[in-house]
Amino acid sequence: MYEAVALVITFLVAAILGAVAVKFLDRLAHRDAESKARQILERAELDAANRIKEAELEIKTKALEQKSETDRELGKLRDELRERERLLDKRHDAVEQQGEDLRKQERMVEQNQRKLAERLEETSRRNEELSKLLDMQRQTLHHISGLDREEATKRLLNRLEEELSQEAGSLILRHEKKLAETCQAKGREMLLVAMQRYAAAHTAEATTSTVGIPNDEMKGRIIGREGRNIRAFEKATGVDVIIDDTPGVVIVSGFDPVRREVARQSLGTLIADGRIHPSRIEEVVGETLTEVESFIRKQGEEAAQEVDVHNLHPKLIQLLGRLHFRTSYSQNVLRHSIEVAFLSGMMAEMIGLDGTLARRCGLLHDLGKAADHEMEGGHPKIGADILKRHGEGPEVVHAAFGHHDEIVTEHPYTMLVATADACSASRPGARRETLERYIKRMEELESIASSFPGVEQAFAIQAGRELRVIANAQETNDAKAAKICRDIAKAFEERLTYPGEIKVTVVREARFTEMAR
Predict the structure, then answer these.
(1) Which of 245, 273, 311, 371 gives a 20 to 30 Å CA spacing to 351?
(2) 280, 308, 418: which is closest to 362 by C-alpha?
(3) Which helix (H) or strand (E) holds 461?
(4) How far apart (Å, rounded) are the C-alpha atoms in residues 419 and 402?
């Protein structure tokens, strides 16, 4: 029992001691907390004081910046105010000057008004005096002539009318003469401008075509056994084949240029192929005919596109392409038609007419030449009939029918086409010169070139548009050859008269030949 009491007392003492220890520890913790709180408060107060100082410093800085900005703005405003004051002073001075000028002008106007009033008074006074003098003269004239006022007026008007009619007649004659001169000058100018704006190159073609052959044995193969090949060829193409003693060529002759071209190409194909017999001839001629027809259609379409003419009937395009193989005085008819179209369009635009319609009339004016060997009549009538059948307008039909002045002109486009046709046909270089003159010109070109030292041979080619000169390689060098070329060109310019240009080419080469034995 004592042990239990002792144990209880021990527990109580331990509990009391524990409570005391806890209370002591709580008091120590409370003291530490208070100490920490005081430190935190001190630091907070110190931070607040620093923040306040920083804020005050920042406020002062901003205040200084605002003050400087305000000072700058005030300075700027002061400058602007001073500038405005200066401008206002200047304007005020200008206004005062204007006011002074206005006052001077007012004084001048007043002086002029006074002078004008005085002159008006003087004028009215003189008018009254003149009226009185005129009345006196009128009365004196009436008394002297014995005519009253109406009769005198009538005679005076009749005399004035006669004088004015004579003067008007002379003026009309003078203006008519001047107008005729102006129209003539304008017409010449328009033609010259139109021809200058368009220039086309024309090539001369013969009525026969030549086909080269590799050797004379080919002539026998073309003729065939008992002439069957040449007969089959002539029957298939409708042309004549002339085989004579001329070495290296066979001549194809025919009135139809399209047939002649088909024959030329077919014969060239047969010679290149080597197989020449009737069945092969018919096959090649058929293929060539298809190619030529396609070429003709292409030529017609390109010509219409070149002159900007559209909506043509396919038959007209085909006939237009056939003109590529037709020549008139050695002038290619298709190129001639294109040139006439351009010239007609240019002149029509200059005088205020429809340039597109004029180009259409010019392009189709010689269409009858593509069919004049198949139909009776001249090419103007044939072309007009063809154009009328295929829906062309009256202006186009009339231009084709009347461009050679065979009928009375009803449309201005006919006159334009006739003028362009004459310009195209008669301009220098459009039609071929005579054979004698041509040969003489070729010989003259070659003789002039051959007269220079160092020239061995000279050949005129391209119908006289180019001269090929062979220089001696032993007597000349490259520099001398260049000088010879220039001297020949200068000699042509000084001694000859020719259209266009002549190209001079000097060839210098050295050849070495040895014989191997």
Answers:
(1) 311
(2) 418
(3) strand 455-461
(4) 12
Write the burial class of residue 258 (CB in 10 Å: 0-12 exposed, 13-18 middle, 19+ buried).
Answer: buried
Tell me the pLDDT tens digit for each residue of 446-474. 888 888 888 888 888 766 778 888 888 88
pLDDT band with cut points at 50, 70 and 90 for residue 201: very low
Helix or strand run (H / E) with residue 457:
strand 455-461
Q: Which helix (H) or strand (E) holds 506?
A: strand 503-508
Q: Provide the sign of the torsion angle of the four alpha carbons 206, 211, 216, 220, taken in this order.
A: negative
Instruction: With a cut of 70, say whether residue 513 has pLDDT above it.
Output: no
Secondary structure of 373-390 in the HEC alphabet?
CCCCCCHHHHHHHHHHHC
Please name each of the domains of the chain with its CATH number. 319-432 (1.10.3210.10), 436-508 (3.30.70.1350)
- pLDDT above 80: residue 241: yes
pTM comes to 0.45
Cα angle for residues 156, 158, 160 (degrees, 5° grid): 70
> In this structure, what DSSP letter does residue 431 have?
S
Enumerate the β-bridge partners of residue 253.
208, 240
In 3D, which of 401, 363, 417, 441 has the Cα closest to residue 194?
Answer: 417
Per DSSP, which regions of 177-322 are E strands?
Answer: 208-212, 240-242, 249-253
Give the helix/strand (H/E) hosting 59.
Answer: helix 2-145
User: Tokens representing 39?
Assistant: 């430190």
Cα–Cα nearest to 332, from 322, 342, 341: 322
Mean pLDDT estimate for the chain: 78
Q: 428 pLDDT band (50/70/90 cuts)?
A: very low
Edge-first strand order for the sheet with 249-253 is: 208-212, 249-253, 240-242
Asked whether 475 and 496 are in contact (CB, 8 A), the reply is no
What pLDDT, in 10s, does the model give residues 250-298?
888 877 778 888 888 888 888 888 888 888 888 888 888 888 888 888 9
Q: Give dist(CA 220, CA 216) in Å, integer.
A: 8
Query: In the prediction, which pLDDT does 327 show?
Result: 75
Phi-psi region of 108 (alpha: psi -120 to 50; beta: other; left: phi over 0): alpha
Q: In this model, does residue 159 exceed pLDDT 60?
A: yes
Rg (CA), the chain: 57
Q: Report the half-sphere exposure of 41 (CA within 13 A, side-chain side).
A: 6
Token couple for 310: 């559209």
468: part of which helix (H) or strand (E)? strand 466-471
Q: What is the pLDDT of residue 462?
A: 65
What letter represents residue 363's amino acid? L
Burial grade of 413 (CB within 10 A; 0-12, 13-18, 19 or more): buried
Segment 367-401, tens digit of pLDDT: 888 776 666 667 778 888 888 888 888 888 888 88
CA separation for the pair 436, 57 (Å, rounded): 118
Nearest-angstrom CA–CA distance, 326 and 205: 9
